[in-house]
Amino acid sequence: MGYKEKLKGFLSAFTPKKDYTITPVLVLSNIAVYFISMVIMAAMAVVLLMKAAQHHDNLQQNLVNSWEDIYLSLGFGSRTQVLSGQVWRLVTNIFLHFSIMHIAGNMITLIYIGSLIECKLGKWNYLFIYLFTGICASITSVIWREQGISAGASGAIFGLFGVLLALLSTNFYEINARRALLISTTIFVAYNIIPIGRQIDHAAHFSGLISGYVFGWIAYWEIKHQKQNLVTGAALFITIVYTSTCIWLAPIYELKELQQLTNNTERLSVALNNDFYKNYELNRDQRLAILKHKALLEIDTLKNIGQKINKLRLPKKQKQVATIKSKIIIEECKLFTLLYKEFNDNNRIKYRIEINSITQKINDFRTEWGKIDEGND
pTM of the full predicted structure? Predict the structure, then answer.
């Protein structure tokens, strides 16, 4: 049963001993990183929240961006950053956690699985398998998520359970112990990997489990034939090939650029509505000067934004919405241009049919947008 039977008392789980060295080091490292990161996050949160509070026009979005910036600065995983070359995040996010319950659950499980298989694999094979399965889990999570932040040791821990399942598939363990371990391990893995719950990183769990199972069979071959460094070398090669392939094939989505352009669109739309439908206290010449020297420039800027939105690389659902949004923006620019001509010519009949036609197009596009949103839900 490995080192598990030798764990006596609470502190023994955190104390390195022969055949149980890397597990407590990993556990203590994760705990230390968690509390250090919490202190740093608290300090950064105060600063960033104060800055966000100064932008009352879009406070909620500023708060979201501020928290994301905090997580990214600490090394949490993110699709855009990793695919842009920051591959070191695939390692750092293995040692980062979101909450005390998150890390507590992972560390309790790590102690359990580590006590079973570290002594069987040897400390260095055990360490490298932990890291390599964690990397495989991290890159899978990154490319599976279209947006958001990822972190946690669960992918690497599932990798260790994959190793155990591989060993249990052989005659490595005595048959009675194998049966008992297989039942308990299968129940644990099935309970945690069933795809229920939005906050569970199933992509990381599946990837960690599968890579660990593969590495476990290589480890069994190494132990059986008394080879040296076979599992470490093979696991490193597989991890590099898999990670490189994922980074090469996965597109970088421009979601942050979409949000920025959307914010600019909202700002310009408000300004144009004010220019055209307010300022009634001004006389005709004053209003015409505002439309000519200010509104027309805003229309050109808005049109360029609409064209940029349509060219962004986005996930399928966001791309559908962005395409409709781009069409609406282009039609609104045409509408505002006609309204300017109507006011400039002082003729409410000449452009009215075209204005009504464009207005109907905009309404049709908005209806189509609503259908897309309903389909996504």
Answer: 0.81
